[in-house]
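Run log, item B.
One chain of 392 residues. Sequence copied directly from the ordering sheet:
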Amino acid sequence: MSSASIALVAGEASGDLLGAHLLGALTERRAGLVFKGIGGPRMTGQGIDTWYPMEKLSVRGYVEVLRHYREIMGIRRALLARLLEERPQLFIGIDAPDFNLDLEYRLKAKGIPTIHYVSPSVWAWRRGRIRRIARAVSHVLVLFPFETEIYRNAGVPVTYVGHPVADTIPFEVDKAAAREQLRLPAGKLIVALLPGSRQSELRYMADVFVQAASRFHAQIGEAHFVCPTASRPTRDLMQEAIHRNGAAELPLTLMFGHSHEALAAADLALVASGTATLETALFKTPMVIAYKMSPITWKIMRRMLYLPYVGLPNILAGEFLVDELMQDAATPEALSDALLALMRDASRQRLQVERFAEIHQALRQDNATKAAEAVLAVLDDAGVGRSFPAAG
C-alpha cells in the first residue's frame, strides 16, 4: 500500500503536545499516513521522523531571536528545500508563526496544501498578519471560539477545534487529594507560584516572584507556597533566586514538574502571562497575572497591542477579570498587594471561579478529534488519501 505524507513543524513544547495529540488521532482514523518534519519528544513518540531538534526553534522575544537568527534561518532554508524535493501531500505548521508562515507561503505557492494550527494573536497585536496568513494557508485550526469570525471575515477557511488542555483538565478537581499527593502541610493557605517555563522568563521573574512571596508571607504567616518548574535549569534558577534573596526559610515546596497538581492544590496563584494562566483558570484557581521581559522587547510589543489586557483569562472573559501587572508595574510590592487583596475578597474569588468554569465549558470540544477530522478533510479535498482505509 502506498502512503500519504504529512509534514509538520512544531517550535516548542506546547506545539509538541498539540502535535502529539493530533498525530495520535490521525493514526487512529486513517492508516498509511507518514509523518515527517520537526517535533519534540511527544511527537516523536507518535511516529514523526524528526529532521532537526525542536529546541533550535524554541526561542522567544525579539532580542533572543536575533541572537539565533542565522541558525534558525538556515534551518528554515534547508527544511524548505527538503520539503520541496520530497513534496508531502500536506504541511501543518503548529504555532511558531514567525517560522512557519513564511514556510507555508512558499509551500502553498508550489501547490502543497498548508494548515496553520493555532492562530497567531492577530486579535491582540500585529493585526496586519491576517493578510499574510490568508496568502500562506489553505486552512486554519483555531483554539478559541472568538477567532473563527476573524478568519471568516478575511476569507480564510477556518475550524474551531477547542483547546486540548480543556479536555485533559477535569472540570472539578479534588483539592485535598492534590495536596496529599504533593505532601503539602494541612491547614495552610496554599499559594502556587508559576514564574514561567523558560530560562529566559525565570531570569526576569524569579527574583520578583520570590520577593513577592516573602512579602506575602510576612503578612499571612499561615501561607505555604508551591512552585513547579519545567526543567532542571529552571529549577536551578529558582533555587538560586531563593538563596539570592535570603528566602531559604520561606515555606516553599519547589518541584520538578507537577504544575497541574500544584494548581489543583492551590487556593491562590501568581502566574506568568502565557498558557499557564489558561491552565490556572481551568483549574478554577483565583489568580494574579504578572510578566517581565527584555525592555526592548516590551517597548516593541507595547506599541503593537490592540487589547487593554494580555492574559488569556481576561481575553476570553472580555474584561479585566484578573489583575495584570506587567513589566515595570510587576514589582514585588505590587504583586504581594494584589495577592493579598484577592485573598481578602471572597466575592471576587467566587466571580473568577464562576467565569473560569464558563471558559472551561466553552473550550472543551474534544480537540484532537476535531483537529484530525479537519486535517483529513483538507487532505481529501486535495484529492489525497481517499483510497486509504480507516485504521484498525
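Observations after the first pass:
- The CA atoms of residues 140 and 316 lie 19 Å apart.
- Confidence is low (pLDDT under 50) at residues 385-392.
Flagged for discussion on Thursday.
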